[in-house]
Each structure stands twice: as C-alpha cells, then as structure tokens.
Amino acid sequence: MMMIYGMFVFELRTLPYQQLRHSMNWRHVKNDRINRSAKWQYIGAGETQINLDGVLYPEITGGDVSLTVLATQAYTGRPWPLISGAGQIYGMYVLTGLQATHTEFDRYGKAKKIEFSISFQRCDEDLRERLQASSVGDLLSGLKDKATSAYNSASSTLSGLF
What topology is assigned to 3-130 in CATH? Predict the structure, then answer.
C-alpha cells in the first residue's frame, strides 16, 4: 500500500503515483505605518494541498475503473483521512481535482497509457496551529516568573544566613 484515502487504497493494482507534491502556506499581512517601515503580522495557517501525479498502463496497473472509483468517492463531497503507506497521517482531505489523459489506443479505442493528476485540499486544522506565538510567549513568561521567584527566594535565604 502506497497511500489510503478514506476507503480507496493507492497501490500498483489501482493508482500507483510516481510523484507526490505537498504544498503548505502560512498567511501574513502587511500593516503600513506612517514614517516607519511596514510591519508584518502572522494571521494563521493557509491552505495545504497534496497533488499526486502518475502514469497508468492498464495492462499492468490500474486503469479507468480505479479512476472511476476514486471519482465516485469524490462525489460524496465528504473529507476523508489521507494516510501514507509509511504511516504518516496527513489529515482530512477532500478531492478537488482529477485530470486524466488517455493515449496510445488499441484497435478497440481502449487507452494503453493513462496519465493522471489528482488534487487534494486539506479541510481540518493542523494540530501545530495551536502553537501560536502568544501561547509560546505566555509559556516563556511563566517560566521567567518562576525563575525570578526562585532566585529571589534563594537570595533572601542566603542573605539571612550571612
């Protein structure tokens, strides 16, 4: 198994892809200021997209049936988990695009070669989004307060001894 999308398994017999592109974006806005340089502010995670590209040879690998099964799953409109064969959980994705190019036809009009491209869009929150700068800053501030308190306590104890 190369990858699984909901109930659809990507493997040699179905849709073996040769390329996986994983695109992640983070959003920043520019705040112009008078007589000063502009400031940039992080406003959160942007879109995450995965694209799979490959070539099918229906006599050896999957073909039209596999593409139809995947397209049928896309028509549900529901997000499905996308998990690699190595166990990496990408998250919940919807299938947003499927392109197929059929070439090298036999005498019955059946393609001997099918090039495909599949686009998935993430639609759930990445757990890492919870690690915002403010929460990290709060954590560091709390650690600083505890360290200052411990230092002051140790100082007063030591000064009382001498």
Answer: Elongation Factor Tu (Ef-tu); domain 3 (2.40.30)
